Amino acid sequence: MGRRIRVRFSSTEAGTNRSDDSEGTRTWVDPVTDMAMILGGPRPALLLPLILLAACLVLASGEPWIEPNFIFQRKHVNYPKTDAPDANAYCNKMMLLRGLYGKAVNTFIHEPVSNINSICKDGGTPIIGGLYESKDEFNTTQCIFEPDTLSISYIGVEKKRKIIVGCWNGYPVYYLEQL
């Protein structure tokens, strides 16, 4: 017996598809029927309820999903602080883990997210243009790129200080670096 090969040709003018195999059988298929059969599998109508369910779960958790705040947290919040032998090793480790390697300066805040978020409400003092200065001091590690080394490395400086953040919709989305 010979091997069966199925080849599919399409005709845009006729609006139909023809398939041949090596035994000489021909099948004409209507693209509308093909699409209806594809939709007979997974139900696209289930997609909307699933999306609504996910949105309800996020809202029920009590934590808002604000993408710029999420990005701010990824770049600047590390609580509890990741273990490292010293501030320089901490910076090299964290800048790599967070995908910030090569950035000139970055500061990590070692406080709970709720404390940091409160700066944009009653825990901070408005300065100008959506910037707020914290009323309390925060534990931070500032990572400064060291250009004099052959490899990419950072100098870490641990400080307890007031911080300045940019707020949007009541949440921090920007950290103002203070050198």
From TrEMBL:
Q: Where found?
A: Secreted
User: What residue stretches are annotated with the Ribonuclease A-domain domain?
Assistant: 66-179
**Residues passing through the membrane, by range:** 45-66
Coiled-coil stretches: none
Q: Does the keyword Transmembrane apply?
A: yes
GO cellular component assignments = extracellular region
Concerning InterPro entries, the annotation shows: RNaseA, RNaseA-like_dom_sf, RNaseA_domain
Ordered alphabetically, the record's keywords are: Disulfide bond, Membrane, Secreted, Transmembrane, Transmembrane helix
The text of the family note is: Belongs to the pancreatic ribonuclease family.
Q: What is this protein called?
A: Ribonuclease A-domain domain-containing protein
